[in-house]
Amino acid sequence: MTSGRSILKVARSVCRHLDVTDCTDPDDFCKGDGLRHFAYQSEQKFYNGITLHDIHSNDQSTVNGVHACAKRGIVGRGILLDFHTWRLANNVAYKPFETGSISLEQLQAVLNTQGTKVHFGDVLFIRSGYLDGYNRLPQDEIEQFATVVPPHLSGVEQSEEVLEWIWNNFSAVAGDQPSFECWPTRKEWALHEVLLAGFGMPVGELFDLEEISNYCKTSNRWSFFLTSEVCNVPGGVASPANALAIF
Fold it and tell me: Strand, coil or helix: what is 196?
């Protein structure tokens, strides 16, 4: 029982648990983006062809809301790709607060180094090193960073190869930085619009993966049983992750 309690404590550190009300801005904390969050930008259509008119023409419309995920929650096998640890060991330059890309080749190298096998339907977590870097910033640099609009962030590259890899393997994706992907996008499109409006795939952001990363390295295991209790907010745009990783 003692072992179980300590593991649960580590598991709960996957994400900071936060209470949320209807007026809370989900972009301020660890959360999962729902299908109302981002549309195909040129077509102006959300998942299943839903438009802003479909959402706003009826005050009671809940189409594409996060409540649909709340019925069953998100449950499955999660895997952590510790890019930050891998890149430090291999002297790979990475600047989390500048626009830059983590390539598919690098992500696959992380998998190979860890010996992690991907199973179809896994939930993908990527520790980019953003949070580790953020926690080291002095307050004045944090305040300066907050003034940059749009924010400049290193994240997963925008490429058709990345999209194909995600489509063929994962049911949801998440990371430790505010956008999951490189931002601003270096293409005429963003991963968000394809993942959310095209695939109907949740995208998690600002996950605190520091403690779970340490546990994975200690146990030499980067897969775990994942649960995420999505808030039951009809028509909600996003939800706190309320996530547990159980080893």
Answer: helix
Instruction: Give me 154's structure tokens.
Output: 């290193």
Q: What is the spatial distance between Cα 74 and Cα 34, in angstroms, rounded to a whole number?
A: 12
Q: Rounded to an integer, what distance in angstroms lies between the CA atom of residue 202 and that of residue 75?
A: 13
Report pLDDT digits (tens) over 53-111.
988 888 888 988 888 888 888 899 999 999 999 999 999 999 999 999 999 999 999 99
Helix axes 104-114, 160-169, angle to 10 degrees: 40
For residues 174 and 242, give the distance between their C-alpha atoms in angstroms, rounded to a whole number. 13
**Identity of the residue numbered 219:** S
Whole-angstrom distance, CA of residue 148 vs CA of residue 43 = 28
pLDDT, position 4: 32
Q: How many CB atoms lie within 10 A of CB 10?
A: 19
* Radius of gyration of the chain, Cα coordinates, nearest whole angstrom: 18
**pTM for this model (two decimals):** 0.86
